[in-house]
């Protein structure tokens, strides 16, 4: 099956919707400490879902992973562990900035690093971008994306200056949130490197008869296991420090105010975890359709997440009480992000027509 950029963009938007929505179920969790619900959701998103989908959608998963070069497995796992640091601080970013602003700032840096560095590392930056018309269009789309992210960030800064009470984001702290978001955005870009390092695994699973749309799923198994390791160790430390073990079985931890509704919390965390995984599920499907310029998938993915996260932010009244000027600037930023996805998608389409 040949490349189909239009289908690829559609899958990336589905992934962006899943990613932007994953934190919403966590808002309904009651009387569980942050490391408890983050770890429970992580088991679903980083362990259970990747293995389940890969076993169902690919051929001979065990044989493929066993035949993969050791260096490939190590690099995928290592980049996944580094990405896990970004995932940890990403949760804190949303805690201090809210869904719309937090995702815009953190994912902006992730988009820039994740899109441009893989072709730079592979030595194909000049050949793919600088010397081709469609490559220059893609570069222009990346630049437009970063401008849109800057505008959204500006709106967030104005929101803080509007002097409104941050009811929807109880712990709103712009300065602290921005610093955490910068670290999160840079570390989260390692996910793109992990996917790029998994190319030998893709070739192996294709050789075993896996549908091209699902070729990235075995890579996700390895990369996400690295992310789980980082998150598990940190959450375990916090759980031990804060005495939260009892919360897993319905007890009241030292930091909880009442016993948790156990079934409700597990169900919500499972929903959040599966939604988190689905962003990568659709991402790998979209990337498989982008052809030679698959690295631009990262920017498309990040921009679509920001767009949907901003919509969630409005629905959850995170911008309630802000001035008309602030909301207008936010709308401008979202429009620029929509434009960027169109520019990058058109650049990829031009690439399929080039000789």
UniProtKB/TrEMBL annotation:
What InterPro entries would the database entry show? L-rhamnose-proton_sym_RhaT
What Gene Ontology cellular-component terms does the record carry? membrane
Positions of transmembrane segments = 6-24, 36-56, 62-84, 96-117, 137-156, 177-196, 216-240, 261-283, 295-316, 328-350
**Does the keyword Cell membrane feature in the UniProt annotation?**
yes
Q: Write out the GO MF terms.
A: rhamnose transmembrane transporter activity; symporter activity
Protein known as: L-rhamnose-H+ transport protein
Task: Please provide the record's keywords in A-Z order.
Answer: Cell inner membrane, Cell membrane, Membrane, Sugar transport, Symport, Transmembrane, Transmembrane helix, Transport
Record Pfam families? RhaT (PF06379)
